[in-house]
Amino acid sequence: MDFKDFNFNPELLEGLLAMGFRNATPIQQQAIPLILNKKDLIACAQTGTGKTGAYLLPIMNMIVETENRHNNTLILAPTRELAQQIDLQVEALSYFTNISSLTVYGGGDGIAYEQQKRSMREGVDLIIATPGRLISHLSSGVLKLDQLQHLVLDEADRMLDMGFYDDIMRIVSYLPQVRQTVMFSATMPPKIRKLAATLLKHPEQINIALSKPAEGILQQIYFVHDEQKVPLLTDVLKTGEYKSIIIFASTKEKVKNLGKVFRTLGLKAEAFHSDLGQSERESILLKFKNKQLPILIGTDVLSRGIDVEGIDLVVNFDVPHDAEDYVHRIGRTARAATKGTAITLVNSRDKRKLVSIEKLIEKEIDRIPLPEHLVAIPEATTERHARPKPAAQKSGSGKPKRKFWNKKPKASSKEGGA
In this model, does residue 223 exceed pLDDT 50? Predict the structure, then answer.
């Protein structure tokens, strides 16, 4: 389903198209019409299904077309990182609109806290917040949400797992009873259904299952130190016969740095991020789609929006935070029953992430040994991190545990698989 079919405000649609978004995901196809019709909604959808856009797009469309925009929408998120990610999507999607947003979370200094207070007094359209810091602003009387029209709980199950139930209920006590409430959760345990029954009125329900990676994707892992990532990837890009490549990094800053590094190394690569102007983004995407640009570097926002055929290599320069994002990233290749390769660079801090990924896809990913000339890299190329200590830890039996870092790699498989 094309985004044009939702009859979005032209300025919002222009931002969507400029970022390379064309077709709605299944969760977006189902959720957007319901939210536009101001229905309460509970949706079970994993990260990587397009769930953030599923609620942001209809709510932003209503904000653009309403006169009552002062503190119009509140989005609650369990962590600062997720709040920041949501705000990045708001920033990108609202590029041609005058929608204003504010992120509210703990951990900042006094200056940041005062800036938040000033923005709240002036009023913004959309507030993205973690529960703890938001309560402090509500309790002080700085923030007034008595005119709020939309409440969104993103990753509601995670918020409850982190002990935010009482905080959520306290926040809701500051809100008007007449409002639209939307809840997204990766799982639907009894505690989530109980929360939904408390907060939502006659809600619609959506349940979207995350699909497994395509059979045609050859998935591979290299265990590396951070200092080895760029030399290894440079080797792969220069020696492999890959014509269309996407590289995913964890932050916008790292995307920018990698673009500079690869160009310095003689590789034709471009960084794609929200700091670029509209014409620059459109030009980069067009060149990539037309195969004039072989290497495109971006964050997970790119993985959810780009629709390009013929991508034969996806590289996870950083392991994604969520296992579902891994599935969505590598799904950019091997489309329409074609073949493709997905390479993930895993450092010593990524053990739990890798376990979650392999559990989700129900497959152990092939371990590929490093080339001999890259086994010892003395200096970092883009970042410096402390290397893991080589000493083995001891188990309760007194025998040393083999560390995850030293896990023996498997031989490369010639067959792709899910």
Answer: yes
On whether residue 413 sits in a domain, the answer given is no
Examine residue 417 and state whether it is found in any structural domain, yes or no.
no
Same domain, 313 and 180: no
pLDDT at 278: 64
Q: Which residue has the higher pLDDT, 83 or 397?
A: 83
Query: Is there a single domain that holds both residue 61 and residue 170?
Result: yes
Whether residue 281 is predicted with pLDDT greater than 60 in this model: the reply is: yes
Could you tell me if 187 and 222 lie in one domain? Answer: no
User: Residue 129 belongs to what domain range?
Assistant: 3-207
Question: Mind listing the pLDDT tens digit for each residue in 229-272?
Answer: 999 999 999 999 999 999 999 888 999 999 999 999 999 999 99
Instruction: Name the domain count of the chain.
Output: 2
CATH number at residue 399: 3.40.50.300
pTM for the predicted model, two decimal places: 0.58
Angstrom distance (rounded) from CA 36 to CA 84: 24
**pLDDT at residue 313 tops 90:** yes
